[in-house]
Design goal:
By secondary structure, this protein is mostly beta strands. Helix content is 9%, strand content 39%. It has 4 helices and 19 strands.
Length: 249
């Protein structure tokens, strides 16, 4: 099953993909065709959004770093998120802004001091993020500062959440990013330094994860700078394809 969050009649609504993913049946019964949908990021405003730095070995090597010994976690504000198909602003001084395709784990059960062996039982599903980085604002690769990863609407998320039961092994998924139809990232979640289960074990060891919380799990190699007018598509097999277009801001 796939769950999506749309803007309908001026209000956010959750719904389920039906008719071979051609439409969304909203929880209030309304039916919306996917081509007519105003997609919102599939996250409630109160969710905690975690993100990872240097969590792929090949991306760490690309940037000239040794993979970290412990997860490099930072937080994102909800206003940084944007829905599928919505414009992504590229600041005028961001000539070194590049897309980052990421698998997102959505927490489904409260998790506190969860063992790695039980961690995936706390995942409701998965979605796709494009966690754009803006290198001009980067002060420290190991702890990205707020302006790098929290610019308004620069983290597209979606289009939907796929049930965890429909993603048997999140460690073996192919990820790719295309800019104007040309592939610029092509990797696999097998290259994660810390997989989803390890991240849940780590985070729940010192805090409580709540249903709806999101964990953006990092990106593979492939730094490619984008410009206004570029169309960027991030795709994860078995999860979804997230598309946004850059606009000048």
């Amino acid at each position: 099953m796939k769950r999506a969050r749309l803007s309908h009649d001026g209000q956010p609504r959750w719904g389920t993909l039906v008719d071979g993913d051609a439409a969304v049946r909203l929880d209030d019964g309304a039916l919306v065709g996917v081509d007519d949908a105003a997609w919102l990021p599939p996250a409630e405003p109160g969710a905690t959004v975690f993100a990872l730095g240097l969590n792929y070995a090949d991306h760490s090597a690309e940037l000239g770093f040794t993979p970290p010994a412990t997860p490099l976690v930072f937080l994102k504000g909800h206003t940084a998120l944007a829905g599928h198909g919505t414009p992504t602003p590229r600041p005028a001084d961001a000539n070194r802004m590049h897309p980052e395709c990421e698998l997102v784990a959505v927490i489904g059960r409260t998790a506190r001091r969860v063992a790695r062996a039980d961690a995936l039982d706390h995942v409701a599903g998965y979605t796709v993020a494009n966690d754009y980085a803006i290198r001009e604002y980067l002060e420290n690769y190991y702890r990205p500062n707020l302006p790098v990863k929290n610019r308004a609407a620069t983290t597209p998320l979606g289009p939907w959440i796929v049930d965890a039961a429909d993603v048997p092994d999140p460690r073996t998924l192919r990820l790719s990013t295309a800019v104007n139809g040309v592939t610029v990232q092509d990797g696999t979640t097998a290259d994660m330094v810390f997989d989803v289960a390890a991240l849940i074990e780590y985070l729940s060891g010192f805090m409580t994860l709540r249903p709806g919380d999101l964990i953006l799990t990092g990106t593979p190699h492939g730094v490619h700078f984008v410009a206004p007018g570029d169309t960027v598509a991030c795709e994860i097999e078995g999860v979804g394809r997230l598309v946004n277009t850059l606009v000048a801001a």
